[in-house]
Amino acid sequence: MTDIENPGDAPTQLAAGGQNAVAHALGIIGDEWTLLILRHATAGVRRYSDYMDRLPISNSVLTNRLTRLAELGLLEKVAYQQRPPRFEYRLTKRGRDTWPILLAIWAWEAAWVPQHEEQLPVMRHGRCGQAFQPLLMCAACGKAVEPRDVTGGFGPSGTWERSVPAATTRRRSFAGSSASPGLFPQTMALIGNRWSSALLGAAFLGAHRFKDFEQRLGAPPTMVADRLRTFCDLGVLRPAPGVDRADWLSYHLTAKGRAFFPVVMCTLDWGHRWFKAPEGRALVYRHTECRRIFTPRLSCDQCREPLRGSDVTIEHAA
């Protein structure tokens, strides 16, 4: 049973004391099949058969994901034929609003993950005509933003317990597999598991020591150790001798880890806009330079103009 009552183009009103916007956003975005379906949906795919042609997916998994995305209000199931009955799945406003997340993930994977079997297509900005990388900006003042430029923490509905997504879907794992890693192999390692996404959030909120991660997440020590080891293997965290004792390691975000910040901010922003807890926001961030509530905006790094989903074209390699 879910506390989501009104999926569609209006924000969902969450139950008091339940999972907050962060948990709901990560529970949706942290699933690879969901990301791949949304990616094709934004390119105009609507029909079941077209998804089957484009994705290495089973009928049962595709049916499950399309049904879930319709229930969550990202897709709308619409009949296009009566005899026999056939349906297509159209993006709602909530679904279309995920494009900054997809764009940020695409850019991070292209810049930092070399293990794609095929080169990722180039993104081109329709307004200036240049190949580009999305640049994270403050919507209030228009300045470019790095992780160090944003401060904040939990808001009225924010606790670690309420922010951890439920394990509602089965994630694909490509570790040690010869299968294609898809478009988002390392993104899934960071947000495709409820404890991974929580640990990443703790790192961006300033956790460094093992006991800090353990206390904030409320996860078993073996789970924390496994996730820290995975993040270090991926080059997202860097271990260093502790200040108090050299054998007590301290974990710090690397340049690769900090570069994932736009994905995190765009995901949280989407979650807060579409999932409303009665107590208020789960997380509150401010841009230290302008001192306003930080709302992320992606701009073209070539012309600095704000990006819109309709401005971005994808060019596949010849």
How is the secondary structure organized here?
Layout (H helix, E strand, L loop, with lengths): L11 E2 L7 H9 L2 H11 L5 H7 L4 H13 L3 E7 L4 E6 L1 H4 L2 H14 L9 E4 L8 E5 L11 E5 L5 H4 L21 H7 L2 H11 L5 H8 L3 H13 L3 E4 L9 E4 L1 H4 L2 H14 E2 L6 E5 L8 E5 L11 E4 L3
Parallel strand pairs: 1-9
Antiparallel strand pairs: 2-3, 4-12, 5-11, 6-10, 7-8
Helix pairs in contact: 1-13, 6-13, 10-11
Organism: Dactylosporangium darangshiense
InterPro entries: HTH_HxlR, WH-like_DNA-bd_sf, WH_DNA-bd_sf
Protein name: Helix-turn-helix domain-containing protein
Description of the molecule:
- The chain has 318 residues and is an alpha+beta fold.
- It has one domain: Arc Repressor Mutant, subunit A (Orthogonal Bundle).
- It contains 13 helices and twelve strands.
- It has helices at residues 21-29, 32-42, 48-54, 59-71, 93-96, 99-112, 160-163, 185-191, 194-204, 210-217, 221-233, 255-258, 261-274, and strands spanning 12-13, 75-81, 86-91, 122-125, 134-138, 150-154, 237-240, 250-253, 275-276, 283-287, 296-300, 312-315.
- It has a two-stranded parallel ribbon with strand order 1-9. Strands 2-3 form a two-stranded antiparallel sheet. The chain has a two-stranded antiparallel sheet with strand order 4-12.
- A hairpin with a 4-residue loop joins β2 and β3 (86-91).
- The longest helix has 14 residues, at 99-112.
- It is globular and about 70 Å long.
- Mean pLDDT is 88; it is low at 1-6 and 168-181.
